[in-house]
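I hope you will forgive my troubling you with a question about protein structure. Here, with my thanks, is the record as I have it:
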Amino acid sequence: MDKAPTTPIMTSAAVSRLVNAWMATIPSEHTRRRYRRDLGKLASWLLVHRGRGVLATRAEDVIAYSHTLTGHRHDLDHRVHPLRRHNTIATKATAWSSFFAYCVRQGLLTANPVQEARALDPAAAYPPHPHHPARTVDAAALRTLVTEAHRDPWLGGSLGASLLGLLIVTQWRPERVTTRTLTDLSRRGVHDDEQWIPLPAELHHYLGAWLDERPDVVGAHVFFERSGLRRISAIELMRLVLRCAERAGLGDAVTATQVARAAAELTRRGVAVVLPPLAELRAVAPAPEQLALPDDPRENDAHQPGYGQQALLPLPEGVIRQTG
């Protein structure tokens, strides 16, 4: 009879050094913080409910812990929950899997318990998005998305074009786009923590037009709603992408992540994504007067009973909207 594989017994200091070594393999500071937090919560649950250390994690532990994360945080279907949240099982499982895969490479484990859990119960250990872009998002479609962003009734005009343009050019996560500050921007491009990413002239024009429209009270951050009262959030950029994709005929499941990955794949293949000039946007997709941002703009459907139009937000004083 085969013996069950044993896991090494490590002191808490040794586990801490192991986690730090794993962290050193992850270049993104944002990802490191999130992965450390998600692994820590799994380790705490495992110790309290199973009496084991993190290196003794089994597939059934991953499944049991995943079941504790269901409910509002489990996006079961993209039509019901079209946007992935940071606290979904998919995101957490990716963090755990990254750590255990590192342990396997170091010879500390013989198998990744997250991969085993996904094979046993894929609904519980929720698999992440496939690492490939949407097939329909080619260079022409990305250009069309920027045009649709310019005419969006909630985040349209140079604001929407700037948001989509930065997402396509930098291929960042939405929260990195929406948290840009004035010090990040330069004639050299946009700062990426370690280097400057050059921006095409069209995107410089979008950003310049938006900065000209901004109220003086918004401070150092670039992306505020037009009233200047609050910053644009990552979830609003993700919803903007969904709305633009649906209007462009790309379906109702094209996410901001897919757009960024599609742009990255096109760049790797040497295919240029040419953004439409600002003058062209103003001619073919004049920005409407902006509506106040509701919690979810797709809930405000003019064809549904009980629809009430949101109050219009005026542009900053002295700004004249150009449509041609």
